[in-house]
Design a protein that fits this description.
single chain, alpha/beta, 7 helices, elongated
Length: 261
């Protein structure tokens, strides 16, 4: 008998959570990723599932057919569509769901942050911040800046972007972690005037904010999308493990999967 847990991953937190859950007795983890990155980092202690579910109805059917006892969404903080589908699909299948969201970066003394609600708002606000833009929002958001002809962009992403794209742009294909020294040299070398980023949180890419503070550069910070109302959420994989341990130990909890047949 075992508990089968679906982890919606693609983040460092998702991988760490998967390893911790898989170490629990009687727990089987299925780690699901969208498959948009060619060579993703993956956990070693789980079954890997790649690709979508076919919408909300497809996810609900999958949860029922696969005997999933619980869903833990550890996707990127800006994967709003995936999280919304996970919440709706889990509710439809009567499967409990928890969201893991790492804390965002706090604004500190010396920062020059300008908060915007979306990538489109960031693109519209660029006019007051100089010509040379360091864009660290990922390749999927580049289309929002395609019409900014008067700006030059340095885009950093794990994989190359696809059109539509700005006419004046260089691309750096890199994966964190990054250092403050490296980020400072990068911004100086490219004569960056302004940084556009998302408040993803975590240590892997926080060095750019420290470098921007040291250099006195403004940052256009795209706010996180809110979670669906009433969605339970925790900040760390350890908190998620504690939630699952508490939930699975309740007398009225969902039945585990019978693997004897």
């Amino acid at each position: 008998m075992s508990w089968r847990v679906l982890v919606l991953g693609g983040t460092a937190e998702g991988r760490r959570l998967t390893e911790k859950l898989a170490a629990l007795p009687g727990v089987e983890v299925i780690y699901s990723i969208a498959g948009r990155v060619a060579a993703p980092a993956l956990p070693t202690a789980a079954r890997i599932r790649v690709g979508g579910f076919g919408g909300v109805d497809g996810l609900a059917s999958y949860l029922r057919d696969a005997g999933i006892a619980a869903v833990i969404d550890a996707t990127h903080p800006y994967a709003a569509l995936m999280t919304a589908a996970a919440v709706t699909g889990s509710n439809a299948a009567a499967v409990p769901l928890l969201v893991v969201r790492r804390p965002g970066w706090p604004e500190t003394d010396g920062d020059d942050w300008h908060r915007v609600p979306s990538l489109a708002a960031a693109a519209a606000a660029l006019g007051g911040f100089g010509e040379r833009v360091f864009l660290t929002t990922g390749r999927s958001g580049i289309a929002a800046f395609a019409g900014s002809d008067r700006h030059w962009f340095l885009l950093r992403s794990i994989e190359a972007p696809s059109p539509p794209m700005p006419a004046r742009m260089d691309v750096l294909l890199e994966r964190g972690p990054f250092t403050v020294e490296g980020e400072t040299a990068l911004m100086r070398g490219h004569r960056i005037d302004v940084i556009v980023t998302k408040n993803s949180g975590g240590p892997l890419t926080a060095a750019k904010l420290v470098a921007a503070r040291h250099l006195g550069l403004p940052v256009l910070m795209v706010d996180r999308p809110p979670l669906p109302p009433g969605t339970p959420a925790v900040a760390t994989p350890e908190d998620a493990v504690a939630w699952f341990t508490d939930w699975s130990g309740r007398p009225m909890g969902h039945a585990p999967v019978d693997d004897s047949g």
